Amino acid sequence: xxxxxxxxxxxxxxxxxxxxxxxxxxxxxxxxxxxxxxxxxxxxxxxxxxxxxxxxxxxxxxxxxxxxxxxxxxxxxxxxxxxxxxxxxxxxxxxxxxxxxxxxxxxxxxxxxxxxxxxxxxxxxxxxxxxxxxxxxxxxxxxxxxxxxxxxxxxxxxxxxxxxxxxxxxxxxxxxxxxxxxxxxxxxxxxxxxxxxxxxxxxxxxxxxxxxxxxxxxxxxxxxxxxxxxxxxxxxxxxxxxxxxxxxxxxxxxxxxxxxxxxxxxxxxxxxxxxxxxxxxxxxxxxxxxxxxxxxxxxxxxxxxxxxxxxxxxxxxxxxxxxxxxxxxxxxxxxxxxxxxxxxxxxxxxxxxxxxxxxxxxxxxxxxxxxxxxxxxxxxxxxxxxxxxxxxxxxxxxxxxxxxxxxxxxxxxxxxxxxxxxxxxxxxxxxxxxxxxxxxxxxxxxxxxxx
Length: 451
Description:
Elements: E1 6-11, H1 15-26, E2 31-35, H2 41-46, H3 48-68, H4 81-105, E3 109-112, E4 115-119, E5 122-125, E6 128-137, E7 141-143, H5 157-160, E8 169-173, H6 177-188, E9 192-196, H7 208-221, E10 224-226, E11 231-237, E12 240-245, E13 250-253, E14 255-258, E15 262-264, E16 297-299, H8 310-325, E17 339-341, E18 347-351, H9 354-361, E19 364-371, E20 385-392, E21 398-404, H10 408-420, H11 425-430
Parallel strand pairs: 1-2, 1-6, 2-3, 6-16, 8-9, 8-14, 9-10
Antiparallel strand pairs: 4-5, 5-6, 7-15, 11-12, 12-13, 17-18, 18-21, 19-20, 20-21
Helix pairs in contact: 1-8, 3-4, 3-6
């Protein structure tokens, strides 16, 4: 029997890869992990963490205005972009160190460099060939920009985190999480912001009420939304750029950011030297054990392009480690996964959309409420909070919960536990609310608005 140098070699030290590596090592496996960019992957470096820090920063302008209604005399306000980015970079560097300590303390060998596959049990990195009984690919995804005249003038979210200066005007192209969140970020920092999306309404796949109401709230804040159009070409000018749209408009701006999707990071890592199969989008095809079509090679996270969320990649890493080395066969339950878009206002959701529930259950009850948050009652703000529950009429189970408003993600996380546990509407109704909060509305909605 061939002797391998490692039981598991992980390519990609993002959230999923690091979790799989350290847990596998904790079960007694000999593990190495390779990373050619930054420990923590997209989430820690150019994703969830720095984005949330920028979201916090972008809220303060509105918070200062809100404070006036409560008697605070706010003086001249000045925002320093460079100071924010420097502090953000310091925090990310600290987190990189935390990831390194976690790996070290669990006995995982960390190798900095680009790892490529030589065959299904061998990885080449920094000129050295290393063998492993199993190889895990957790290389994540990478921003994708379509080809069109002037493509070279645009940035992606990767570059947005490191801009030297804040633009006066920006066009953001896309209709998903990243586009919507960055529209709120830049607008909140005082940038004249336009979001361009080729479809009739952004956030395809989310509940239709959420999509419509969020677009309304964003427009109320002053974010310009251009739907049913796209950029067909970009010209560089002396003082910025001109974006030519398919609806015959021409928009002038200082910066254009594309958030039109991410592709699995499977190029140039040697997969062609193995029996690993990719789907049409370049994602690694895996079974329910995260095993690819090459038995010794596994994949988790965004590189499989299934549910591209950091907590999902972590859960997959845990399940894989338990199954391979912990003698605890495990699988991830992909139903009822909550998620939040850190838009302005926030959007949180768990369970089925109204459209999905109608298709699955037929007869459903819908509960909705829309109101002014108490925090804004002493201000001139016209922002509204929206909440929605979807109930299967036959079983009385709550099968979907959706919210737009402050702290939607924090609130929906708790609601997600109830839905995962199979809570009925009767249980929601019997639960005493915390008063006065927005969250209590989820247990005080009594009148169905439709079926």
